[in-house]
Amino acid sequence: MKMTKTLPLMLSAALLATTTQASSSTPTPWVMQGTVRTAAGQPVPGVPVGADNGYFDGSELWTVTDAQGHYRLDLKGTLGSWQAVARIKRTYHGRAIDMTLEPDNNAAFGGKDGAVRNFTWRLSGRTPDGGLYGASFYAINGFERDGEIVDFGDLEVTLTPEGPLLDGSKGQPIRVKYTAPLRDVPLGQYQVTARSLSGKGPVWVRASGGEYAPSAVVNLVYQAGTGEVLSVDVIHPR
Fold first, then answer.
1. How many whole angstroms separate alpha carbon 86 and alpha carbon 32?
2. Coiled coil: which residue ranges (predicted)?
3. Contacts of residue 38, Cβ cutoff 8 Å, sequence gap at least 6
4. Domains identified in the chain and CATH numbers
5. Half-sphere exposure of residue 59, counting CA atoms within 13 Å on the CB side?
6. How far is CA 102 from the centre of its chain?
7. Run of H or E including 232
């Protein structure tokens, strides 16, 4: 259990001074250091990286990554154990997105021992707690007044990245037979098209608030309890 008390003078503002340099794989006493990279291995500058004290409640020390994605945090003279944390905030198509980054080692460590903790910015895949980084995609039948209802066993959807994904990388098209929501779609904006596998007729789609058309561009929307969501309505036009 954390103890709530005022930090001793050794955790004064002087300890907040940090420097950034290339990290090594061997821990340096009184130093937490490492790198932040995308899943493709590209360095990510300007990412806040912190050490959260496991003994003194509310005690955190922070720095940011340099142009090469390196960070270095001075823990000299501190007490208790520390947990490495990193978060990234980006504005993507007008929306602020805040994500926790994945550490290569989530174990707590003593300040005197130091630690190397590297982080990866993932847009898909399993999170350490068993969730998913990626978005859920839904194709939802429109109302009968809008056209003929689509048989989901006869539906194929294609998601083509519309520009770079959230981390700036180039995504790949996704084409699948749609029988249930797609899980773990890499975070990004997509152009969505759909077709009838049996050739029943064209399938039109629309994003929320849009009009039915042969294609629609959809962006990420956060839904509490679900996470990031991409969705379109589908219909056979009359």
1. 12
2. none
3. 44, 120, 121, 167, 168, 169
4. 9-121 (2.60.40.1120), 135-235 (2.60.40)
5. 25
6. 9
7. strand 227-235
For all residues of the chain together, what is the average pLDDT? 90
pLDDT per residue over 143-185, tens digit each? 999 999 999 899 999 999 999 999 999 999 999 999 999 999 9
**Dist. CA 99–CA 105, nearest whole Å:** 18
Q: Which two tokens stand for residue 24?
A: 């090594």
With a CB cutoff of 8 Å and minimum separation 6, the contacts of 27 are 109, 113, 114, 115, 116
By CB neighbour count within 10 A (0-12 exposed, 13-18 middle, 19+ buried), where does 75 fall? buried
Report the distance separating Cα 210 and Cα 214, nearest Å. Answer: 12
* Alpha-carbon 202 to chain mean position: 34
Q: Which residues 6+ apart lie within 8 Å of 210 measured at CB?
A: 216
Query: What are the C-alpha distances in Å from 128 to residues 100, 101, 121, 138, 238?
Result: 11, 10, 13, 25, 47
Looking at the chain, how many residues does it have?
238
